[in-house]
Amino acid sequence: MKTKILLVGIDGLLLEKALDSGRAPTLVALKESGHFTELTMSAPTLSGPGWSTLLTGSTHAEHAVMDNWFSGHHLLIRPDLLSRAFYQDQSTTTFAAAGWPPLVDPTGVGPVIHERREQARAGQHRVISRDGETYGYQKVDSEIATAAVFAVEKYGPDVSFVYFCDADEAGHSHGVLGNEYLDAIARVDEHLTRLHQAIELRARNLDEAWLFVLTTDHGHRDEGGHGGDSPQELASFVIGVGIGRENPEWPRDFAPEELLSLLLDARA
Ligand SMILES: [Zn+2]
Asked: pLDDT-based confidence at 1, cuts 50/70/90?
């Protein structure tokens, strides 16, 4: 049976800060047990370009998303991870859940994850879209987590993307040196715990193989904010944990746009 993949995008996460905080026990455990790679993103270190690169396996120049407005983007010819997996094998089931509309909402800018209406109608592609920009990510992320845990338990999608933005929002509002950023990291860590437990249970009970993969699109300056090319803004990572299978044998070092093909290859 092919490995199932759940990629979690944690927007604006400074991993070192999370690991050192004592507030993110699941992140610490996953980093210690999984494959770890430090990634260096490209400027501008904004969410639109960053997630477009990670999810479509393209450089900023190739997808042409240079900001969060997406004007003139090439995403229609740069299919995302979920779509690529489906094009490789049309029995693939996919799931996306995100509170930042440009990732998943076809009525706004983007979206980075293609709508794929036929597969959606067939129940092969499920999308949960929420609006954290309007309702706040603390609330919306927990709805996303609940929906994602439900999807893992009930459907066990073959390839999933689940996105949390609470930490990024806290970074923008309060900077990353205070407790607000760490409080948000602690809440995201609880979401990761629930997702990890759901996958472990499913892998054990149904004898499935999963890869639980975590990444971020950029860091933050100390005072909050990103977009530039300082090391702290460019910093990202990939943690890949095999559940019901070995950890992935990925290089120690790779570029952000190479993650997609590593994930697709890991399915085989
Ligand atoms: Zn971001």
From this structure: confident
For the domain spanning 4-267, the CATH number is 3.40.720.10
Contact 46, 260 (CB under 8 A): no
Q: Helix or strand or coil: residue 227?
A: coil
H/E stretch holding 268 reads none
Ligand 1 centroid from CA 148, angstroms: 20
Residue 268: pLDDT above 90?
no
How far does the centroid of ligand 1 lie from the alpha carbon of residue 255, in Å?
A: 18
Instruction: Output the CA 168–ligand 1 centroid distance in Å.
Output: 7
CA–centroid distance, residue 115 to ligand 1 (Å): 21
The alpha carbon of 104 and the centre of ligand 1 are apart by a number of angstroms equal to: 15
The domain ranges of the chain are: 4-267
Give the Cα separation of 1 and 19 in Å (integer): 34
How does pLDDT run across 151-168, given as a tens digit for each residue? Answer: 999 999 999 999 999 999
User: Which 3 state secondary structure label does DSSP give 119?
Assistant: helix
CB-CB contact of 78 with 61 (8 Å): no
Query: How much is the mean pLDDT over the chain?
Result: 97
Sign of CA dihedral 5, 10, 16, 20: negative
Q: State the distance from the centre of ligand 1 to the C-alpha of 102, rounded, in angstroms.
A: 11
